[in-house]
Specification:
single chain, Serine Threonine Protein Phosphatase 5, Tetratricopeptide repeat, 20 helices, 2 strands
């Protein structure tokens, strides 16, 4: 597949919306974001955020593997620390429960609790400001459940109540920028609205001239969200609005501002690399990608600087397009180590190893090339097995994986038991044999 075909396929697969909300995939991130919300938002939801902060702080002392089990048990038995609940749950308690269910990957239970809270906060059909926390949380839960229509409805209701983001921040605008059906100019409009709210909040924080750690952390988070939204605008002008006369200019302006807002963030650098690839400025793209990876590659997976899973999937595609396959396979191996249930990660890894094997064949390093081809086949077979189990829907990906496997089997012959026994011994071999390879694959 040529670089042109690779570029077309970059936007496909498991592309998840950026998570602009108060939830994260681990308790530390979740706690920090909730605390920032409490510090930064001069809203009528302070009580909620305070309760969430103390609740998650307590839950953070529980072993991670026990949280989901305990949450389910507590919800089922109506108990807390073994004591039966005697009074009706308050809206705040229900929202805490919903947030914790969402935090522990139980979105169905989270939705039930959040809707109960909404019914208490908004007892009639008339929307009220008190319902804002529940509406935004319901929107995020529906994103997690894969129900964009329900998520859009919740966020739009929240916007009806808080059209300027004065009461409940920018998140609802940023989510709609990604979820709305129209895309293009409509997405840009919502991104720009979110950035406007974030800039206002940033100015308010900077005006306090307070050097408390939590305020400084909140400032950095606002800047990161602004940068992420601006990267979203740049991506829209690289895709939906690429035909517009000033598309390139708008991309440059957005990514420049993003870099100024968060110069130590990986995402603006990754977006810059994508723009440079579009302009065929590959050396500049490689420099940006190298800098982006250097900011997080030695950090623990739960460090807040590490980009989310879907962003790193996109990164691996960019690395392959920039002919940085060694770096791409490192990223993909790390992703599989974190979550081996991603069809796209297995597919990209198999494809990347196939490209690396082609490089070795060109250098007549046959033994190393054969080892890489076997590893490529293993990744692609895992991809197709998972594709079938999950009933995944990406025919283009499947067709390409089938095509690559056909080519590999034509060269290696059918998989045998001896091949499977040799794979573990050879996996380290190909990495050691060509760990420092910097030769670029021709197109």
């Amino acid at each position: 597949m040529s670089n042109v075909e690779l570029r077309i396929s970059r936007s496909g697969g498991e592309r998840a919306p950026r998570d602009f909300g108060a939830r994260a995939t681990d308790s530390h991130k979740f706690l920090v974001k909730l605390h920032h919300s409490y510090v930064c938002n001069s809203t009528n939801t302070h009580t909620l955020y305070t309760l969430l902060f103390h609740f998650i702080d307590t839950m953070g002392k529980t072993k991670p593997q026990d949280r989901a089990h305990k949450a389910k048990k507590s919800a089922k038995n109506g108990t807390a620390n073994g004591t039966p609940k005697k009074s009706k749950a308050s809206p705040e308690a229900l929202l805490i429960q919903a947030a914790m269910f969402l935090q522990t990957s139980q979105p169905d239970e989270a939705l039930v609790a959040a809707k109960r809270a909404l019914n208490l906060l908004q007892p009639t059909s008339e929307p009220t400001l008190a319902a804002l926390p529940a509406l935004n949380l319901i929107g995020e839960i529906n994103v997690e459940l894969g129900d964009p229509e329900a998520a859009i409805e919740a966020f739009q209701t929240a916007i009806t109540l808080d059209g300027d983001g004065e009461h409940d921040g920018a998140e609802k605008f940023l989510w709609l920028a990604q979820l709305n059906d129209e895309g293009g100019a409509e997405s840009v409009r919502w991104f720009e609205k979110g950035v406007e709210v974030l800039r206002r909040e940033l100015g308010e924080l900077e005006g306090k001239l307070v050097k408390q750690p939590e305020v400084q952390e909140a400032l950095e988070e606002k800047k990161q969200k602004i940068a992420s939204a601006l990267c979203g605008i740049a991506e829209v002008y690289m895709t939906d609005l690429s035909w517009e006369e000033d598309a390139e200019k708008r991309c440059e302006a957005a990514v420049t501002e993003a870099l100024l807002a968060a110069p130590e963030s990986p995402e603006p650098l990754q977006t810059l690399a994508s723009i440079r690839i579009s302009q065929s400025r590959f050396e500049d793209a490689k420099a940006a990608l190298t800098r982006s990876i250097s900011l997080w590659k030695d950090l623990a997976p739960d460090d807040p600087i590490v980009p989310d899973y879907s962003t790193r999937i996109s990164l691996s595609r960019l690395l392959m397009e920039a002919e940085m396959e060694d770096e791409a396979i490192e990223v993909l191996e790390r992703l599989i180590g974190e979550n081996d249930g991603s069809v796209e990660a297995w597919y990209l890894g198999g494809w990347c190893l196939h490209l690396l094997a082609d490089k070795q064949k060109a250098k007549e390093e046959i033994k190393t090339a054969t080892s890489m081809m076997r590893a490529s086949r293993d990744w692609l077979e895992n991809c197709l097995k998972l594709y079938a189990v999950l009933e995944y829907e990406d025919e283009r990906m499947k067709d390409h994986a089938d095509e690559l496997l056909k080519d590999l089997n034509g060269t290696l012959g059918p998989t045998t038991e001896d091949d499977e026994d040799d794979e573990d011994e050879e996996d380290d071999g190909w990495e050691d044999a060509d760990g420092g390879d910097e030769e670029m694959l021709g197109t």
